[in-house]
Write a structure and sequence with these properties.
This is Ubiquitin-like domain-containing protein. The protein is mainly beta. Helix content is 12%, strand content 31%. The strands form two sheets. The protein has a five-stranded mixed beta sheet, covered by helices on one side. Strands 1-2 form a two-stranded antiparallel sheet.
Length: 85
């Protein structure tokens, strides 16, 4: 199980290990395996919505980057990514 951290603002930070070829849908599946329902939420990086087929490399996500996962009804939290090699 992944170690979760809560930020000062109360957001949940969950580190994920990803590869440059992983797609947003793969990140979503990782969260579901960690027990976080993410199917009705949208990923954002650098104030830009990410597409389901977009890869970590295409989105220019760097080691230690933080993504927003926003619920369609309310703010969802932040997830920290640690891309693999």
């Amino acid at each position: 199980m992944t170690e979760e951290h809560e930020s000062l603002s109360g957001d949940l930070l969950i580190p994920l290990t990803v590869k440059p070829t992983d797609k947003v849908m793969d990140l979503r599946a990782q969260l579901v395996r960690e027990g976080i329902t993410s199917w009705k939420k949208t990923f954002y990086y650098n104030a830009r919505q990410l597409g389901e087929e977009e890869t970590v490399k295409e989105a220019k996500i760097q080691n230690g980057s933080v993504l927003l996962l926003v619920s369609h009804k309310r703010y969802g939290g932040r997830w920290s990514l640690f891309p693999g090699r």
